[in-house]
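Milestone M4 deliverable, item 7.
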Amino acid sequence: MEEAPITSPGVIFETPKVVFMMADYGHDPTETAVPYTSFKDAGYEIQFATENGKQPRCDKKMLEGLTQKLLGAKKEVVRMYKKMALSEEMRHPLSWSEPGFTLDAFDLVVFPGGHEKGVRQIIESPIVHKLVVDYFPKTKRPSKKVVGAICHGVMVLAESKDADGRSVIRDCNTTALPAKFEQVAYWGTRAVLGDYYKTYGHGSENVEDSVKKVLANPAQFKANLNPGAFIVEDENYNYISARYPGDAELFAEEIIKLFNSFHKIN
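Output delivered:
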């Protein structure tokens, strides 16, 4: 059993403030709803942000029909997603393109993944890149600010570069969707779904390669091919990454554990 954090009697800690940074459409429901539910259950204060404050919608193929049954979210996750979609915070998101918007108000910034082409809206956004370039360095330990990214969400960080062209995760250990996972999904469904599993279309670079090329050393990319839950926590920054929907629960648990550690007395 996990030990409860030891804290000073009578000390009240502020509730972590969380923002899910999202495109209008296309994120994976498991990679969004599972962490959301875990953070909600932990009592965190949650908000969503999209480009113009439009309510985000996750990838329909992962929620309905044959694609959901064979490839998508489990029934329990679909229920989580429906509950999340009705929440005040998801129905009334912030706008990350508003001039006054800043990530500084948040203790945790989450970038869910998703392979649907709509997620390119956030991966390619220069506005988001600027926000991330400003925020990510503030997660350097012993800071108590945290960034979490899963699957294609890591691509947002990879594409967020400073004036010298260096990605914010250049010096970090990270994971993301492994190339072998991506290729199996793509080639296994191409006859029926076309290039659905390739966010940038047939012949485009794998997520793993897109992330590796911005790292100081390709060995910093951890491509665990075991389907069991796996995450990577960087040693120097409060940055936790994960590969795919199967990691979502552990991803959330480890982020919660990290916040608990901030208040633990050794």
